[in-house]
Amino acid sequence: MLIVGPELEKRFYRYSCASIKGRGTHYAAQAIRRATRDVRGTKYCLQLDFKSFYASIDRGILLKKLSRTFKDWRIVEAIRAVLYTYKGDGLPLGWYTSAHFANFYLTQIDRFVKEERYAKHYVRYMDDEVIYGANKRKLHAIRKDIDLRAAQIVLRVKQNWQVYKMPYVRGHPTGSHKERRRATDFVGFRFYRYKTTIRRAIFLRAARNLRAIAKGKYNIVRARRYMAYNGYIAHSDSASIRRNYIDGKIKISKLREEISREAKRFDAGGICAARI
């Protein structure tokens, strides 16, 4: 992967995100925020993903694509060995190679959307895709074409795809109440034109954890959860969450102490006894 990884990344679409250094959740979120500033160009949104994506990847097709990229037979044979070591269908979840290979597998779709359908605002987080446009019919046409392109590489678009109207800018109450409330639910956030909030399911888990900490339940598990959820809070318009659940209610210093204590355990004795 020290050889293969950088070469594959050169071929990735700019906003192909997930499991790529510097292109994580917040990179995708920033791309969506920039896109939604273009009010006319993001009047409608198409969202879709692929059914059983990792398990549906055809290793034969993937190997053929990779062999056209890498001309050294030793690299191709090494890739073949990795691909067919796994006895299940498609690519295994969690393997170091899988994310890069999966992203590379979808470059064909990326090029089609950008170079043939000229989508101005398009972001993909692994197999979750968001495409904005000014015309609803064009987005429906793009979705149908993606269906056809995906079939060529043995993928199927899930039936829960949707095309919807984006909310209006604050201060412009044109349209129904339902239209004004609609947002793009993507990478753990809900993107409105004038604000970004946390996905409801993530907020409920974060609030549950914060309430437990406020009751004095300070431990390493809750400290780690706080740090994880704080990433969502810090990168969204969540002043009310801080006001209602954090400020004056929990001691951040105690959570940091828990994490520092755990780190010292690892430094002193290798694998923590609690983990064994």
Q: What are the salient characteristics of this protein?
A:
alpha+beta; five-stranded mixed beta sheet; three-stranded antiparallel beta sheet; 51% helix; flat
Task: Describe the fold and architecture.
With 276 residues, the chain is an alpha+beta fold. Helix content is 51%, strand content 11%. It has 13 helices and eight strands. A five-stranded mixed beta sheet has the order 1-3-4-2-5, with helices on both faces. The chain has a three-stranded antiparallel beta sheet with strand order 6-7-8. A hairpin with a 2-residue loop joins strand 3 and strand 4 (128-133). The longest helix is centred in the last third of the chain and has 18 residues, at 252-269. The radius of gyration is 22 Å and the shape is flat. The two termini are 30 Å apart. Mean pLDDT is 90; it is low at 272-276.
What's this model, at a glance?
With 276 residues, this protein is an alpha+beta fold.
Number of strand elements = 8
Total DSSP helices:
13
Biggest sheet features: 5 strands, mixed
Structural class: alpha+beta
Mean pLDDT: 90
Envelope shape: flat
Strand-helix topology:
Elements: H1 4-9, E1 16-17, H2 25-36, E2 44-48, H3 53-56, H4 59-69, H5 73-85, H6 98-105, H7 107-116, E3 121-125, E4 128-133, H8 136-152, E5 162-165, H9 177-181, E6 184-186, E7 189-191, E8 196-198, H10 200-214, H11 220-234, H12 239-246, H13 252-269
Parallel strand pairs: 1-3
Antiparallel strand pairs: 2-4, 2-5, 3-4, 6-7, 7-8
Helix pairs in contact: 4-5, 7-8, 10-11, 11-13
